[in-house]
Amino acid sequence: GAVVSQHPSWVICKSGTSVKIECRSLDFQATTMFWYRQFPKQSLMLMATSNEGSKATYEQGVEKDKFLINHASLTLSTLTVTSAHPEDSSFYICATGANYGYTFGSGTRLTVV
Amino acid sequence: GDSVTQMEGPVTLSEEAFLTINCTYTATGYPSLFWYVQYPGEGLQLLLKATKADDKGSNKGFEATYRKETTSFHLEKGSVQVSDSAVYFCALSDAQGGSEKLVFGKGTKLTVNP
């Protein structure tokens, strides 16, 4: 079946630095990628929806200048957390698909120290 | 807007016990319904799905039936195993409501003891 490869699986960075998370669709083309954030012991919150070749659509309350999303090709979408702070520490997951059932990346555990 | 409400956990069971995790939804259109499972330290995996009323999704001994009259999609398993310990998320996708994004419930943590 469809596979989404997400990297890195975990990252520790210093406050003020930027971190890039990549999601690649293997063996299929993903015109849309959803980026979710999961807080400890909570559900997944949709941050933004990226579409290949166009600007991402951000959910209310998500800072688009802080969470930069790029979907430059049909197989790659990236999320860059800019000027990271400890409160950005979280589990970030990408997903693609539709109402047939999404395919999720394996997630990235970000810790900002 | 669309929403999913699922029973709060955590749920702790002994091996071979019967499992029910309740899930109800609110949607403007005719959503597809899903159960996802998240094992410790991992991403989400689709467990089962149903795309229309009265459909029954099943996988790995788990079942859920799409009940339009009660707007529910309860997850059941007749005999749980230790390996079923995970967090379970109920979710919907309401493409006819104008969006393909998934809306998740808050998740229910299941622990199965030997």
Question: What does this protein structure show overall?
Answer:
The complex is a heterodimer of chains A (113) and B (114). Chain A starts with a strand and ends with a strand. In chain A, strands 2, 4, 5, 6, 9, 10 and 11 form a 7-stranded mixed β-sheet that branches. In chain A, strand 5 and strand 6 form a beta hairpin. Chain A is built from no helices and 11 strands. By secondary structure, chain A is mainly β. With 114 residues, chain B is mainly beta. In chain B, 0% of the residues lie in helices and 50% in strands. Chain B is built from no helices and 12 strands. In chain B, the strands form 3 sheets. In chain B, strands 2, 5, 6, 10, 11 and 12 form a 6-stranded mixed β-sheet that branches. Chain B has a 4-stranded antiparallel β-sheet with strand order 3-9-8-7, with no helix packed on it. Chain B is globular, with a radius of gyration of 14 Å. The N and C termini of chain B lie far apart (41 Å). At the A-B interface, strand 5 and strand 10 of A face strand 5, strand 6 and strand 11 of B.
